[in-house]
## 1
Amino acid sequence: MRDIDEIGELLRPLARITPDEPGGRAGGARARALFADIVAQDRDATTTAARDAMTTVALPRRPHGWRTGRGRRALLGLAASAVLALGVVLGPGLAGAGATSYANSAVEIHEEAGTYVARIKDPYADQREFSEAFRALGLDVELNVIPVSPSAVGEIVRMGGSAETPLNVPYGARKEPADCDLADRGCFMVVTVPAAIKGTPGVLRFELGRPAKPGESYENDWQSVTRPGEPLAGVKVSGRTVEDVLAEVRKRGLAAEFRLVVVHEGGYEVKPLAADEVGDDWIVFKVTPAREGVVTLEVTAERQGGLEYAD
Amino acid sequence: MSADTHRFEAVYKATYDQITAYAGRRCDSPQDAADVVADTFTVVWRRIDELPPGAEARLWVYGVARNVLADHRRGALRRRARHRDLDAEMADLYGDPADHRVERSAIAQAFRTLPDDDRELLALVAWEGLDRAEIATMLGLSRNAVRIRLHRARRRFSRALDEADVRRTLTDTVVPVGRSL
């Protein structure tokens, strides 16, 4: 019988993509496009959606609860989790499936050519009112309107669903009238979902960005402030020293807070970090929006091999 | 709230290349491979709460990819919107069909006669470079179970090669050290 090394030698040339060759490029444009589609947080997904209400995007889900911890357990749990999720999703009943329009003080929804058009009347309303309106029409849609930094206002910054939610849902977000200023009366954010989702299993969750109130923290705090429309648009920050980046920040009249990036194999997390613990020579990984006039520098004490610094 | 996105971004960057290669080695068309990659990471995102820490993360993602691939082969996956760019990238990887003569080789023929599980085990070793412990973690099996299955897979493959009259011509070549199975 051949030993495993010999078998390896025999099989390696059969691999369409040779074992030492990377299959793709995680930092490449294509990989980034897929990433953006999956987390559906990016301008690309949302601005396209704004132009064309029928943009199709991948539909991710942010699960809550039933955390399973260990790897093997989690792996075996995949099938079981799907069953579990089904139970959770089917839990709330869908009443009033016959109606085609509904309004409360927060939102007005009506059906228009196979599409439900939800006009946000009061973006600061109690969150429950948005979902209540959709549910009243038999749509299992949860809409959260969250405070975001300027570039994300009027965009769906995140969307999700459950295990049973179809992967592709054409949704849209736009302003009415087009390109109006949300500070003006008569300018509304509008979210559209296809009427066809009525009756499909699985909840659809949207997070729609609204302007923050003075001093209110932004909830899109994973996005970069180097995006167009943000205070550090186009500035290179990733991989530079804290001293350098702070100079850029101050030049724009902004204040900075810090978070510590803790890298572990396969991931990293951010932790609170006091400004006086940070050295000037520390390395910035990413800068994110905190609230008006304040950005967060995500930093490490030294350059980390495990992090991919942006261009 | 952003912790999920951070974790996903990190695991995506850390495993994208490997999962793309994994799918590319197992799917007959670049379109299918692109679908498997996209669906794998969609599942990872959905299940980000379950992502194990440390080195197991990569193996867990491989496990997801394997499940997605199995679903895909059963035709159970909903067709998703085409990621044209990813398709193009995959098409590049698949390269020129004229270059695929190895697929017609006797070794490839012998490999193809094996049961799916045997092929997958041997491929995880030869192509993904996983060791026995890693495969055990990925598949949710004990190391002993992997050892036994791998042994059987080797035996069946050896037999298939003998039947195909593939001589042991490679014993003189230099074999990379460091992997013990």
Note: The helical segments of chain B are 2-26, 30-46, 56-73, 84-94, 106-112, 116-126, 132-139, 143-163.
## 2
Amino acid sequence: MSDPAALNVAASGFEAVAKDVSDPRGAKPRRVLSRRNIFLYGTLILIAVYYLLPLYVMFVTSLKGMPEIRLGNIFSPPVEITFEPWVKAWATACTGLNCDGLSRGFWNSVRITIPSVVLSIAVASVNGYALANWRFKGADIFFTILIVGAFIPYQVMIYPIVIILREIGLYGSLWGLVIVHSIFGMPILTLLFRNYFTSVPEELFKAARVDGAGFWAIYFKIMLPMALPIFVVAIILQVTGIWNDFLFGVIYTKPESYPMTVQLNNIVNSVQGVKEYNVNMAATILTGLVPLIVYFASGRLFVRGIAAGAVKG
Amino acid sequence: MTTRQNGRPSQLFRNLNAKIASIPMILTALVIFLGGTAWTVFYSFTNSKLLPRLNFIGLDQYERLWAAPRWMVAIENLAIYGVLSLIFSLVVGFLLAALLDQKIRFEDTFRTIFLYPFALSFIVTGLIWQWLLNPDFGIQGVVRGLGWESFEFDPLYNAEIVIYGILIAALWQGTGLIMCLMLAGLRGIDEDIWKAARVDGIPMWKTYVFIIIPMMRPVFITTLVIIASGIVRVYDLVVAQTSGGPGIASEVPAKYVYDYMFHAQNLGQGFAASTMMLLSVIIVIVPWAYLEFGRRRHV
């Protein structure tokens, strides 16, 4: 039971970050161009440039033609902007014998991510609700195993899952992978929902019980509408996590249904043919685009999500 | 559906709906996490090749494992990578958090920039840095183009330093997260402590080192566990950046396990290697859990 508590510390700290500091503080206002400020902002801007540079390089490389890449400098902006690498990466880049580009991987990833997100969140939210409000004997033991299990390296559990999926006939199919994502998303999501539902005032729950509402009625009519923010956090966490997954995709699916990350790696690291760096970079950006959009659109909710999801590693 | 309240419900049927709803959790905990782990450890004592077989050979797989040069390279890489990424993540993460905690303007913008690589997958990260570290066109090529002809910076093609090339990419991707955890810790510290230190005329760096950091002990421990459990799992990044090369110079244990299970068709060896990974996690987690438990019990 120690793990969830420690994570709570981290999670509650994040709330503190998110809150704006509004009380007046400090001595008299400092001059804008003090030496301290120049040093402080100078350092921050330098570091920011370091963090942004790879994204910039990737972007300009993807807009150059191959001759320009061979002659020029990776940091220089493109002289002649071309969108051909993007088109090629999306529609005609080859992996093995297939030459239909990353679009296939993209749609595979969509087909994997949507059911995985829905299933894992549905299961985990009900689990968390049961753990918070309908405690039964032994529930805490299973929950502790679940949380400790989040630290077990995946490699230890990969093969037994292969056998189980093979037995039920789902090995190599999209649904097999969906189940795997739901299993490995369960510890962190259950923790997230359990903590949230525990913080809901108990009187509300009791009042509903007095009115004769049962397990599912309370879940759907009271808990679900109240927990919408935490559902959003869970969705952000799962969409980025599942989209970025590589290991499970490569193990539990067949080449036709490889997710985008696996296909991207196969395109870029294929040994055959001339390396087309601009196409590779366009493909890399395309793969990173979905989590980046989620990240920039979600802002602070993403921070809350990773505070909870950090253990997922 | 309503809960059963007619008559006197037996123990098993109390909270029946909650129990039914928890079946996925119970199955995951028992079958996958407990059962799967036990199964793998159990079969690591067999000589399973293409298919799991119950033909026990004692500790042979482990002897073979520790005699394999590839495994030794993987362990050495993991040790270098682990120690350095632990130190650098903590130091850089804390420094970034301390910088952001100076009541600066545009704090949100800077935080967004430092954290965005964390949203990218290891595959994407690895491929970006593979391109930046390309000896002909990347950083080395650019510096040489500026006139410094003898400049050398090609970690991904030099077996001696390839693991540092992977470390650079990993730090770029992961320090934002550590910064966020540290910033949360810094924000959790009472403002009065800063005021008291300022009144006493203690320099800022001393306040950090002797007062703030010791107060942030729980945050540091949580962060440490998070970093450590991530280190053992490092896999995608290596696959994307070097595929374990040049030669076997950048192999890591997770890749060893995968290759032996799914390519070399030597399951027993894969099971033994993954059991060693489990062991290394236990070594990190158990003392931490013990400390947490012990402290809570006293309070």
Note: Residues 1-21 of chain A have pLDDT under 50 and may be disordered.
## 3
Amino acid sequence: MADTRATGIRIEGLRKRYGAGETAVDALRGVDLQVAPGEVVGLIGPSGSGKSTLLKCLGAVIEPSGGRMTLGDEVIYDDGWKIRDLRALRRDKIGFVFQAPYLIPFLDATDNVALLPMLAGVPDREARERAHEVLAALDVDHRARAMPAQLSGGEQQRVSIARALVNRPPVILADEPTAPLDSERALAVIRILEKMAGQYQTAIVVVTHDEKIIPTFERIYHIRDGRTHEEAGEGLRP
Amino acid sequence: MISLAGRDIRHAWGKFVFTGVGLGLLIGVTLTMAGVYRGMVDDAKVLLDNSRADLWVVQQDTLGPYAEPSSLPDDLYRGILGMPGVARAANVTYLTMQVGHGDRDVRAMVVGVVPGGPGEPGQPGYLIAGRHITRSHYEAVADAASGLALGDRIRIRRNHYLVVGLTRRMVSSGGDPMVFIPLKDAQEAQFLKDNDAIVQQRRRTAANPAFNRPSVPGLLEAVIASQNTNSSVNAVLVQVRPGESPEEVAAAIRRWKRLEVYTRAQMEEILIGKLIATSARQIGMFLVILAIVSAAIVAFIIYTLTLGKIREIAVLKLLGTRNRTIAGMILQQALALGVLGFVVGKIAATFWAPAFPKYVLLVPGDAARGFVAVVVICVLSSILAIRAALRVDPAEAIGG
């Protein structure tokens, strides 16, 4: 298997067309994007610009109509060709952080995090040890046995980040992870993502509308009418 | 791997338990309906067992004495007794009626038997209290299910009887408790007319010139006397000698006495196949409807529980959970609900069965079949929810 961590995620000329004929809609018209391991980039754009479609393509949830996507040296899509098991790819190599934490309500914090390695066949005990390790890195291990309903919003979001990190994926896709949070907590989440990206050498793409956090990215991809252009951001101040 | 179904159930155990109890009560009703049918069959068999007869001799071309009226002369048993292979033969009458007791009455099957000790066909086999009928008139032995006690006085038509003995599980095929009285009294009770009717009948007989002939003195009195007595019985119960074939003895009686004779197997077929067949079909319909209602309820519950977790299922699928893991979770919950429902239903049926006025027989085999049916219904019911879950697009977990 290719080392997916070496060069992060790269997409070239990614296209996505919905429907066919006169009613066809081109949501993505040749998107280019590259995120190195340990890097956090922002992806911003107005509604209908293609952000969600791009996120779904990056997350191997929908298949692009054309273009190429690689995770490290591993080709995921290449002009209509795709790897066979997208489900396993999502499980093992892509982490997701959602706008709402979407924790499984009937599992405690540890098992919410440990579920992914368990699904990948890791023995329960080892999966829980991994979960504790990531929860500790996110300073939420003291709430390891709490059910999601017993956690605060910030704690839930940290548990969901822990879930995204637990399989050490080469890429994490964060969909509006700070939307429901105030400025202070939003910045705290971005700091956590920055720290985890460095600690686990993970490429992180943060889709956001949040004006408070947009300047904190060192690189920002703007998407409009299905195309991206890149600009530099200010980066997080210490 | 943790059990997602188990964790979900543990998380929302109150909702799960209440749903299971509700389903269980429905399953309990279903098991009870099966028990009612089994009870009817058992009552029919008990009726035959308690007759302690090998053969039932009845009026020709009838299915008597339980399924159709049958009338035989009461001296016929002597001729049957003389047939080869016959050990014992006894007259018997059956009449289902209201038996008065104080200011209330009891539905009972009044059985007319020849007074004598146990062992005679038709006699109650064993008593739980008191003694057998020893007098030719006005004594009765009653089944305990009638609510009568030793020393009670009961009223059958215009005569009063003293309860001298009590039996148990002596019931008709309809589940009515039996009351045994002397044969002569039972014969009278079957055809007893009120005084006005007797006077009117005598007047009509006297007005008939065929019976009231001046040249034949005593004819009218003889005719009237014959009208006031009843020398009919419903059946003759026969026990064959050990080693004799009931079929062969029955064939001989049919041939030489020109009567209908049924063996135990034939009588069982009449009772179960004909007498309670309509009731059995009725109960069968109830069972089918209850099974469909149970399936619909399980399907609705599981479907609703699944729809309540659509977002979690989308997240699980996005995170790479296999479809079979999600389907397994739903199936396990459906089965757990079914097992809980079955346990509750079995316990409920066991508790409330004795309270039913008629005998409810809960057979372990029915419970086993019921359990298998519940499992099958749960599996089929979960298909709808599994389909809904598998249709969930993992992209639903991502906004936009």
Note: Residues 193-232 of chain B form one domain.
## 4
Amino acid sequence: MSKVMEKKNVETSVENNKVSANTSKKAGDSSVFMVENLNLWYGADQALYEVSMEVPEKKVTAIIGPSGCGKSTFLKTLNRMVEMVPIVKTSGEIKYRNENIFNNKFQKEYLRTKVGMVFQKPNPFPKSVYDNVAYGPRIHGIKKKEVLDQIVEKSLKDAAIWDEVKDRLHENAYGLSGGQQQRVCIARALAVEPDVILMDEPTSALDPISTAKVEELVQELKKKYSIIIVTHNMQQAARISDKTAFFLNGELVEFADTNNLFQNPQDKRTEDYITGRFG
Amino acid sequence: MLGQNDQSIQSRMQGRVLLNKILMVLFLLATTVGLVFLVLLFYRVLTQGIGYLSWDYITSFPAPFPQEAGIWAGIVGSVFLMVIVATFSVIIGVSTAIYLEEYAGKNKFTDFVRVNIQNLAGVPSIVFGLLGLTFFVYMFQFGYTLIAGGLTMALLILPVIVVASQESIRAVPAEIKEASYGMGATKWQTIRRVILPAAIPGILTGAIIALSRAIGETAPLIIVGAATAIYTLPDSLLARYTVMPIQIYKWTGRPQEEWQFVAGAGIIILLAVLLLMNSIAVLIRNKYQRRL
Amino acid sequence: MDKGLQSDRNQLNVQELIENNKRKTSIGAKIERVIPWFLLLCAIVSVLTTLGILFTLLRESIGFFSDVSIWDFYTGTEWSPWSGSYGVAPLIGGTLLITLIATIVAVPLGLMSAIFLSEYASDKVRRIIKPVLEVLAGIPTVVYGYFALTFITPMFQGIIPDLGIFNALSGGFVVGIMIIPMVASLSEDAMNSVPNALREGAYGLGATKLEVVFKVVLPAAFSGIVASIVLAISRAIGETMIVTVAAGATPNLTFNPTESIQTMTAFIVQAATGDTSFGSTIYYSLYAVGMTLFVFTLIMNLFAQYISRKFREEY
């Protein structure tokens, strides 16, 4: 098992280089999000302070930091899910592909078809696997069965779960294991072919083997999607991400290429955190 | 000295333990009193009514002689009435619950609606009868008709349905709502495709229990003029009607003993219908409880 | 490995499909805007119901009080509307007598049942007995009326020979049986929510179960228990069919439970089934009595809510 994984890691890291070589050529227009001076309050409590960062396209961006540092809040701000809490207020700007997502004309439903999300705990609907994956296309008006069939198959294949569920597409998704449920949830997010996928600690509720599968999947997915992943696990960030952002007490402390950040942190607090001195 | 003290503590202890035992038996007996009367009631109704229960009884109209009287008009009237009650109370009740749980802001108006529903649930049913008499019978000029009775009863059980629906909507996990919003679903899409399907078993259970209360209600229907003896089946919303409990009430009130047997037979049917409804509610609850 | 992602990059482009559908979904956007208003309208129905009840009771009562003075209504001691006497005291007395008997029956039995279920019974026993006990609350009241008239009254007549066919005793007794599950169920909930740590503290000092019940559980659950009793009493006040069938139709200011009486609710039924013509004084008197009844139960319900709100703050 571990041998196979090692081999794949080698493969993927080779691919990483290729991809980054590709994207670095056309740098400049290659960012999906431009965050500028973002502040966020839950009622009177400020949760994010003056966050500015640029999220690159078709790369894996990891967000790390101790719990309560605002990393999940930041992630949920990117597709405005944070507004589910009614007392949230923000200032500053987030530009998705050069459009301010807080602009009144910018519909949050539209944003969320472009910016999909995978949650901390696998959260399939109490419906069949098929209906779970077809949910997104359906709510956006795609009704033809042939089209839906195609989308479901493709999404499940892309989420590397097709072989495990192809014979039980019409069974309730609650019957799957936690790891399988999480990959169905990833397939569900892929079904609308979003531009960006946000992942909020997607492996924190999974066992090691399922975690490895999801990590592997992330490496595959970044060929087509820009991925932003929140993780409390620094090794995971080091393994799978191209860039890493370190958050502390609602501030973005450091944002750099993953290798640089872990090997050569510029900020004392980053160094303390990655060497395990707190958090 | 010490020995004596020990002894007195021990004897007092024995007294306390004994008292505990005696009162436990008393509490147990008190609990069984309610159950005993339940059994007595069933036994009494069965022995009184079973002799008059027959196919003819079920399919006959009221008659001046006990042997010929039947409850057909009551059964049909109750069914028709329940269709009206269910239609109005479920649509309005579930909508109210969705509004309160998913749309309403945290403001004075919402609090007022909540407290108001709580209070409505405690208003005696006969007062709803007076409401129906003023509005549906006289002001809207429906008269003593099926629709007047149905609307009155729908308002009566509305609070029960609202509260049951609110509870089952609230029980839908936040995670799957988030999943839906995260896919770019709008609020109504999320409600229709995720929240309601997950809440339906609970809503259904609550609605059936509420309807089983309505099907046994008598007082408000007397006030809004359900007929006591009727020889045709209602053929429109504006037809006169009777229901099972009204027929039972009328038969119970007659002095000759035979009529009490007729009433007993009617009660057996009414209780059988209630048993059926409650069994369905329990079945639904058990079947879907584990899903979420 | 690559097969999964690349080979399927075929003619299908979901975002494009979504984009195309967007023009068609302007109807969807309209639904999205209309739905909350429809739901709000439905929520307002319950408010209108309350307003309707208040409106009808007040308006018709005012109509009544223009015929009969409010003073005579509340201080008069004779109720015979067909001969023009409108003193409501006998009806209120009848209601209170029934409620008193029902309370005497239901409160001790209900409380003892609650103590047994909450403190003594095993989980399994509780899970069987509680629903069965609650069946008592689901039986139609007209069935209780039948039971009171044809079974309880003859039974009591065996003990009290000069008991009439219609009497307050059997009506009140059966109302009491009916509200046992309300007292038992709600009190049991209150006792159940007393934290176990409190009980364990007392057990640790060597208290018996009984002492724990009386010194710890009952005081801690006190307001919940009071609320359950108040709600049950309110239910007894508004109960109609049992008393109409079994307690008689004799407005009678008495506290002798063996006599026939008439409650407020029973009068409303009697007047509505008799040939009362719309707009007559008797017709209006229905509403004056109904409003009195409504005020009684409303006060009880508000009181119960006030107590249980206080109760929730305790933990």
Note: Residues 11 and 250 of chain B are 62 Å apart (CA to CA).
